[in-house]
Design goal:
six-stranded antiparallel β-barrel, globular, 492 residues, 34% strand, mainly beta, Jelly Rolls, eleven-stranded antiparallel beta sheet
Length: 492
């Protein structure tokens, strides 16, 4: 049994080739048709290899969130303060789950019901005839916070505005229609209960957040029936220090990881990779990595590939936030360059435990300049094939690893928090990879394995680490999941 690489921060994300190791993410074997309409498909794939393309500015649409404008008044907000959290205990809350945990749910007694939340919302008129109310929640010791807004009814024309005390002008604005569409998507996927009716506010990078609800003129406050029974307290610091703060901050990922800004290689592929943050049905937050992939129509549809053990339900997909171009401004600076975020969630198209693959379509178009990565489903990779990975270990700035395929494995759940990954053959669903440079860590889960500029796998997990440089990692084979299902979107 492999012990956790992230003791007190979640289970080991990795599955090695030992008979039984800490789970990397055997996830559920669920699948979902495209809620936006499954394409009419031929009886077999029409293509088995495709190159990358770059999303031009002319094709990049605006985010689902509209540009927030000042309200013209300072709203009175009900301010709720949650006391200091014992993070030692909180970090154990997700033990038994394979992805890297970064946050834990906390109950909010003052807004636990619709009636209590309605009492907390102090409605005020705005100069333009609209009305608005606000509630502020702070969780002491948190680095980030997402409110779980349980929606009974919300007008499509409402505007929801989220910001922190530290950055009151950095407002994320989301329409009621967008929220309702996400929750309808959960129900259409057959998912129910409180989790499927909960919209998670974006993390605005602080341990507090204000939620403002703005209603158009003539809409009564009684039309808003929401509750905030819990928040997700993010105890992992996903923000990065300024240059002045660098000397006092411990680096996130292990020192043997390789900064993707320190190589002239992978200039195209690296722009296809995004850091993922999402909330599970129980309110626990996680971080993984995913890759944007091209399709043979080359129509810039934002198809996104990650691990089933990261996202395997539509309810989780609806909470997805992605960070693009999230890498250091210069080699080993530790300071992020200009990056972009998207908060609109995704549509889960297909998820399977057989290759630990999850295939989504992002609800928001990513920013201009991202790459839609090419892929190779020809099953030509064999032992010794040169490969590389691009990923966000520990949720850190983009890193890369270089190595070769070591063989094949058959990874299956061994029950509980273990998996069995015995050696396999060319028909097996996973590649075993050994790195010559770099490793992977928690947060790298779901990241792409590349060969000659094309995706050939997604990270399940493994035993590589800075203190185990000879360890191996296991990647679900892209050719297997391509031929089993996702070719109907990528090459149909």
């Amino acid at each position: 049994m492999n012990n956790s690489k992230h003791a007190m921060r979640g289970l080991a994300w990795a599955c090695g080739i030992a008979a039984a190791m800490a789970v990397a993410g055997c996830g559920g074997g669920s699948s979902s048709d495209d809620n936006g309409g499954n394409p009419t498909t031929p009886t077999s794939p029409t293509a088995f290899v495709l190159d990358s393309i770059v999303l031009p500015g002319s094709k990049a649409q605006a985010q689902a969130e509209t540009q927030a404008q000042p309200l013209g008044v300072t709203l009175r907000s009900t301010r709720i303060a949650l006391p200091q959290l014992d993070t030692t205990k909180s970090e154990q809350a997700g033990l038994g789950q394979p992805a890297m945990q970064i946050g834990v749910p906390r109950a909010v007694a003052q807004t636990t019901s619709v009636a209590k939340t309605q009492a907390a919302l102090q409605w005020q008129p705005l100069p333009d005839g609209r009305t608005a109310a606000a509630v502020h929640i702070a969780s002491e010791g948190a680095y980030g916070l997402r409110m779980g807004v349980l929606v009974d009814s919300l007008p499509d024309a409402a505007q929801l505005r989220i910001y922190s005390d530290e950055h009151p002008d950095a407002v994320v604005q989301v329409s009621g229609a967008s929220v309702n569409a996400l929750l309808a998507q959960n129900r259409k996927a057959g998912e129910g209960g409180q989790a499927a009716s909960t919209w998670w506010t974006p993390d605005v990078g602080a341990g507090n957040a204000t939620l403002e609800v703005v209603l158009p003129a003539g809409t009564g406050a009684e039309a808003v029936r929401i509750a905030i029974p819990s928040v997700s307290h993010i105890y992992q610091n996903l923000s990065l220090p300024t240059e002045a703060e660098m000397a006092d901050v411990e680096k996130k990922a292990g020192a043997c990881n390789l900064d993707a800004s320190c190589t002239s290689n992978y200039q195209l592929e690296r722009n296809a990779v995004a850091r993922m943050v999402y909330v599970a049905a129980d309110g626990i937050s996680y971080v993984c990595t995913g890759t944007l992939v091209n399709n043979t129509k080359k129509d810039f549809t934002p198809y996104f590939l990650t691990a089933n053990h990261c996202i395997s339900t539509q309810t989780a997909a609806s909470t997805l936030q992605t960070n693009w171009f999230y890498r250091s401004s210069s080699c080993n600076s530790g300071i992020p360059g200009t990056f972009a975020s998207r908060n609109g969630g995704a549509t889960l198209l297909y998820a399977t435990a057989s290759t630990d693959s999850s295939f989504l379509k992002l609800n928001d178009t990513p920013p201009a300049g991202v790459t839609l990565a090419g892929w190779d489903a020809r099953n030509t990779a064999t032992e010794g094939t040169a490969i590389y990975g691009l990923h966000h270990p520990d949720g850190d700035l983009l890193k890369y690893s270089v190595g070769a395929i070591n063989g094949y494995t058959n990874c299956v759940s061994a029950g509980g928090t273990s998996v069995s990954c015995p050696a396999g053959d060319a028909q097996s669903n996973f590649y075993s990879v050994r790195w010559s440079q770099g490793v992977t860590e928690g947060g790298s889960s779901g990241s792409g394995l590349f060969s000659n500029g094309r995706v050939i796998g997604t990270l399940y997990g493994g035993s590589s680490a800075c203190n185990a440089l000879n360890g191996t990692d296991n990647y679900g084979r892209f050719d297997k999941v391509f031929n089993s299902k996702i070719w109907s979107w990528l090459a149909g």
